[in-house]
Amino acid sequence: MDKALKYLDAHRDPILNELFELLRIPSISAQREHVNDVRKAAEWVARKLNALGIEAKVFETAGHPLVYGEWLGAPGKPTVLFYGHIDVQPVEPLEEWQTPPFEPTIREGNLYCRGASDDKGQLYTHLAAAEAWLAADGTLPVNVKFLIEGEEEIGSPNLPAWINEHRELLAADVVVISDTAQFAADYPSLCTGLRGIAAFEIEVRTGSADLHSGSFGGAVPNAIEVLSRILTGLHDEVGRVSVPGFYDDVDEPSAEEKSSWSRLPFDEATFIASAGVKATWGEPDRSVLERIWTRPTLEFVGIMGGHQGQGHKGIVPARAVAKCSARLVPKQDPKKVLEAIRQRVMQLAPPYAEVLFHCGHGTPAVSIPTDSKWVAAAVAALEKGFGSRPVFIREGGSISIVTTFVRDLHLPCLLMGFGLPDDRIHSPNEKFSLKDFQRGARSSIALLQELSVR
Amino acid sequence: MDKALKYLDAHRDPILNELFELLRIPSISAQREHVNDVRKAAEWVARKLNALGIEAKVFETAGHPLVYGEWLGAPGKPTVLFYGHIDVQPVEPLEEWQTPPFEPTIREGNLYCRGASDDKGQLYTHLAAAEAWLAADGTLPVNVKFLIEGEEEIGSPNLPAWINEHRELLAADVVVISDTAQFAADYPSLCTGLRGIAAFEIEVRTGSADLHSGSFGGAVPNAIEVLSRILTGLHDEVGRVSVPGFYDDVDEPSAEEKSSWSRLPFDEATFIASAGVKATWGEPDRSVLERIWTRPTLEFVGIMGGHQGQGHKGIVPARAVAKCSARLVPKQDPKKVLEAIRQRVMQLAPPYAEVLFHCGHGTPAVSIPTDSKWVAAAVAALEKGFGSRPVFIREGGSISIVTTFVRDLHLPCLLMGFGLPDDRIHSPNEKFSLKDFQRGARSSIALLQELSVR
Question: What whole-number distance in Å separates Cα of residue B453 and Cα of residue B142?
Fold first, then answer.
């Protein structure tokens, strides 16, 4: 491993120059005029993998192509599947970029370019690690597979099907993904949980048609009044969800996680400012991080009813709808949660209204147990790469591809994000710290070593 | 008067034939292709008035023309101003008409035609009354003025300004309008009150932009949740408005009105069926008619916030708006009511949200005191015309032109509707009972006589 680390340090510039080649390809998956650029980027990565000795191929999908490559020269050793993506977000508004979006530029220790952090730069840490091992040692300590897609920024519409059709090809012991961020600068992080989601709609009908508010107002029910009363009944005054059974299966985080979180540089004022709100809200006996990472929520996503246009209209509306969702935490069953909410909604429905509960899609949360050997390997690797012990963090949202790996392939995932929260992914002037690129690549070199001895 | 009544009975057919001429003109004010038909109808009415000896002229407005006519041959006697309109509603869907919409047809004692009840037929009762007096007696017992517009069905956009520019021309003692309905068949009715309205919007902002419900949900306020809680706080659970001071200036109806209402053939099941609701709602200690006629309301007219489109979106919305209105009853000041609601809304606003209260237009209610000599004249005239004592009723909505007469010209209005609730005005197969046409015209003959002796 030391030879690989030395190779990495000695070849910093040629490695970066190769990454620059990839970054210069404007592989925007959402824009039709860049369809060939996504393909070019895929071909570039396949070529690079093959050059390293990792047998790779471009695969067609119904949308943009993807790249799959493998090196299986370590029989008896674990197999690690790296996932990443080479497509990027659109770059508008162009005038806000200090340097052209597809011209890699180094300023104050940061690499500026669309895709620098999300995800070409982070992905490349693992290619650099493989290169370092193969160049320095002529071999890799474990078997590796690469699955690199071109549609992540448009929601990976074709990947889950492709994965399920190529289960044997993708057989592995652990998945490694570097497409998130450290909690803060110099806080190497391992993400151990993602919330799930369960969507639903509440529809209230109080009559067959809107009524004239002069001729009927005051003597007939109002759909918006009924819906408001139902929605109000779903939380208590301080922000706890008022649905019997809602918190039943919710686990407390492990002592290790809690102690890890207490060391995080979380500042509530900074959080409030970044959210653009006047104050936090929610379960008062939980910290902000606990609320977002470990607690389920019930959110009102949209509401509509009655007159939506300009000006005023003299009606008593007969129909109102709220679009809602619950963010779920590990062990919660979307169906069970939706049923609990449905029962509460029906309990709140007055006899003079017809209340309909429409269930939407549901995805359970993802939990990555902190006591596995894979996590132990990642912890050791990050400590080696960054020089400090990593923190366990979680993510309040879902990453759909992680759900696919965990739920369809039953693979443990290591979410090792090397980016920073202020990398401005999806915005002008996206950047990636060169120091973190180097520390990420070192961590990846160490991870291959650590995985080989578990 | 007896001669006039005899003339009316003897000339039933020629009078109806003349009304048919007017009804055949498709004077739909809302449809551009009928712009000349509205003018034709105005010219027809002006010609008719002049033929009767009532000097009339077509006046131009920024929109459709109107007709003004006067007969001032009774010096020292009161002056009565008749208001009506010769424009009609569109006739679509055509296939639902049993006979062509502009071909007056008599079936089972009813006259079917667009405009039969709203308002050509009702208006014509007063022309027939004037004709009967003038033909039989050569004179009218009071001075009369006619103001007949061509834009009522599109909201009378130009009439209030015209009225205010012609205050001297319109000087009168009382206004008579037959553009409403009897409470039920054989219940000659005098409408003694119209509710006013005060419109407002409640806008809630919990942040500068919608937030990702994964990354922030559960720890930041939700604009829809805040708005729902505010709306829910504006009524108690049974439907009373929970705004301190809201009912302060609300008058109880007079004993005479209450006793009149107790005689009305009101059936709650029929009301529920006609409204298309499952049950009534509102102040439990008030009858349905009291709720609509004598009580102010606070209605939610429209609500919007967050994701309005198809499907789901993972956001915590930062903004939500409710469009609302209060229906007002006599003595309530729109400004005072809006201020009371604003204070209550602000009291319900949580510290973590910015809550804006936008005042909209306000129109006070109209009250027609039942103890005036004009009302006494109308009561006597209706009793003469219908053979039974009229009932006092009210209207839950506003009639904007009545508000103009009452508030701008300070004129008492007699709202003597001869139509029936099932006349299907604005719908296919509009009708007007021939019996009610005759009883209306008799009432109008009697009204001129009654007004002359007050």
Answer: 9
